[in-house]
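From the shared-data thread, chain only:
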Amino acid sequence: MPSPRRSVEGRPLGVSASSSSNSPGSPAHGGGGGGGSRFEFQSLLSSRATGVDPACARLRASESPVHCRGSFPLAAAGPSQASPPPLPEEDRMDLNPSFLGIALRSLLAIDLWLSKKLGVCAGESSSWGSVRPLMKLLEISGHGIPWLVGTLYCLCRSDSWAGREVLMNLFFALLLDLLLVALIKGLVRRRRPAHNQMDMFVTLSVDKYSFPSGHATRAALMSRFILNHLVLAIPLRVLVVLWAFVLGLSRVMLGRHNVTDVAFGFFLGYMQYSIVDYCWLSPHNAPVLFLLWSQQ
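Structure, as tokens:
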């Protein structure tokens, strides 16, 4: 009796598709071969039909998208294989600081170190603690309240138009200095040095902040005002400049301010006089103010 015709793989041709689908190697049965085994088997069949080496066919099957790991779409990947979210912009700036940021941090570190070294009168137990009363006397000489009270007193006692004009502008300059320093201190809010003792003369709410130094701005403003509107001998002019410089240095020695606070204070006071000189008050552009003081 003739044997039934068999296919190339040795299976009878009359076998139904259901029996093949229920075979252990089929995907529906859940066997270990799966779609990859069927793909490899079909590759072997095509290699026999075309005369290709089976080893090359296996190599191609291993390089197929079914066997290549990670070739599936990202939508099918689990949450563990998802790409990490990008870093925020501020974190990238911290990881890769700019040259300007490095320079500013270095300048701040040098400022704090130098201010602490120069704070030799910050306390009674400091290296120059015995000079502290003299430094506090210099502090009072640069305070805004004595200057305002003295200017108002001289303005009330003055009987010449030229003297009233100079004193009026000096009073305007002192008010401008107080307003600008208080505004900048409230915006920057830099704390005073840690070694500072809060025993200042007549402090306000903004005096707990350090930047800029109000004494330094007032020293630069007053020294420039005096040198431009008073006729003084050369020794007195040198004494005025020396007073402004020593007053600014005393702020660092007492531990009230850092070096950059005093440096910016000198610059701000210098510019404040330029503003006062540009907006100079006179009987021609502000006659109401001078008539008010003349009636008194």
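The first helix runs from residue 17 to 21.
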